[in-house]
Design a protein that fits this description.
Blueprint (H helix, E strand, L loop, with lengths): L8 H13 L8 H6 L6 H7 L5 H17 L4 E7 L9 E2 H11 L3 E5 L6 H15 L2 E6 L11 H16 L8 E4 L16 E4 L3 E5 L5 H6 L2 E7 L1 H16 L4 E3 L3
Parallel strand pairs: 1-2, 3-4, 4-5
Antiparallel strand pairs: 1-8, 3-6, 5-9, 6-7, 7-8
Length: 254
């Protein structure tokens, strides 16, 4: 069932309709699923329905859809930097970020942020890694400087070394650092502009505010804090998929 959890509700409904109508023979094979227009999740569907006849596959899909209909929707909160309205319903960005890092018990994924005085925000994360063994991955947006090495991998490693020197002053344990090699190419037009934090595969913060003094205290920035395991897990899996496909590379930690 876990492999089917990545499908959107509409995709599950379509799959159930195909099984009920006999348009999809069970257990389905990957090439048949692709021919039916379900190529994005063909392998996952084939694995989940392996060994099931039409009746069993139909029952499984019905259970999944019933579970989604009864499950409460994701909790979403507004996260804000800047002046507030008289009746504010948002939470302060810097406060939320520190609380998220302090609450992590298993894993943290951070992607796309720029840093200045990063240690102020990251100190609760370091404590979690040190005392609770929280596994942390940071996907960096490379900012080239004049005089940086031409080789993109050397440039990215230098950027990673600067990150640890300036924003992670505590030493071990250290997070894994990953980078898109395209962003380290001289005169690159690519960037890692997506900004997100995922905590324990359960909560995700997505917004515009960098981990800088401007982004956390001075600019007007907006973000959404989602408490939804399915969404958070898909976001983490998407980044991990990019790593496995070689679109992100890991920098040395020292």
């Amino acid at each position: 069932m876990r492999s089917l959890a990545a499908l959107a509700t509409a995709e599950l409904q379509d799959l159930l309709h195909r099984v009920r109508s006999g348009r999809l023979v069970c257990p389905p094979r990957v090439f048949e699923l692709r021919a039916a227009g379900l190529d994005r999740h063909a392998e996952a569907i084939a694995a989940a329905l392996a060994g099931l006849d039409a009746r069993a596959a139909e029952a499984l899909l019905e259970v999944l859809l019933a579970d989604r209909s009864e499950r409460p929707g994701p909790r979403v909160g507004l996260v804000w930097t800047g002046p507030e309205a008289k009746q504010a319903t948002s939470r302060d960005t810097a406060v939320v970020v520190r609380e998220l890092f302090a609450s992590a018990t298993e894993s943290v994924l951070i992607a796309g942020y720029r840093f200045d005085h990063g240690a102020d925000l990251l100190e609760p994360l370091y404590q979690g890694m040190k005392t609770r063994g929280v596994q942390t991955q940071i996907f960096l947006d490379i900012e080239r400087r004049r005089g940086d090495p031409e080789d993109p991998h050397d440039c990215a490693q230098l950027f990673a070394d600067r990150f640890f020197h300036k924003h992670w002053p505590w030493g071990e344990p250290r997070p894994e650092l990953h980078y898109d090699p395209r962003t380290a190419v001289p005169r690159s037009l690519h960037s890692l502009h997506a900004k997100c934090v995922v905590i324990d595969g359960q909560r995700a913060l997505i917004g515009s505010a960098n981990f800088t003094d401007r982004g956390q205290t001075r600019n007007i920035e907006a973000g959404a804090l989602l408490d939804d395991r399915r969404f958070a897990t898909r976001l983490v899996e998407h980044f991990h998929g990019l790593v496995h496909a070689g679109h992100f590379l890991r920098a040395r930690s020292g």
